[in-house]
Automatic annotation (TrEMBL):
It comes from Psychrobacillus glaciei. The lineage of its organism: Bacteria, Bacillati, Bacillota, Bacilli, Bacillales. Keywords: DNA-binding, Transcription, Transcription regulation. It is found in: Cytoplasm. It holds the Pfam family Staph_reg_Sar_Rot. Residues 1-133 form the HTH marR-type domain. This is HTH-type transcriptional regulator SarZ.
């Protein structure tokens, strides 16, 4: 792919997020948000997966997880496939914090989409769907 197209797409993405994200109200680190995203996107996450994903030591990952547990953003549960293992899951509070820190403000997005024709909305939806599908193949 043409390097200029990649640069343009990245620029468009940062514009979209900058102008349409929710106001940041939560005191949460970037790494904590990334951990919450990992838990949301991948099934059966434990401390080992957090360490591997963030390229940090097991002890450091454990400390991050401990802080998220204290804030009640995550909960621990038994792995349904192996009761000896513990997995980390998002709490309702964690889901809300993650949404506010990674998603677009749905009211702002609706305002923008309402300015597009039906055909343009279909094009935008299809383009983002294709990018999402491609991204999922690269993630893990």
């Amino acid at each position: 792919m043409n390097e200029q197209v990649v640069v343009k797409l990245n620029h468009y993405w940062t514009d979209i997020y900058f102008y349409l994200h929710y106001p940041h109200e939560d005191k949460i680190t970037h790494q904590a948000v990334r951990i919450l995203q990992l838990i949301e996107k991948k099934q059966y996450v434990g401390v080992h997966e957090v360490a591997s994903y963030l390229h940090i030591s097991h002890n450091t990952a454990s400390e991050h997880v401990k802080r998220l547990l204290e804030k009640k953003y995550i909960i621990k549960e038994k792995n349904p496939e192996d009761q000896r293992k513990v997995i980390i899951c998002l709490s309702e509070s964690g889901k809300n914090v993650l949404h506010r820190n990674t998603s677009l403000d749905e009211n702002k997005l609706k305002t923008v989409l309402d300015q597009l024709s039906d055909q343009e909305k279909v094009i935008v939806e299809k383009a983002l769907e294709l990018l999402s599908q491609g991204a999922k193949k690269c993630m893990f």
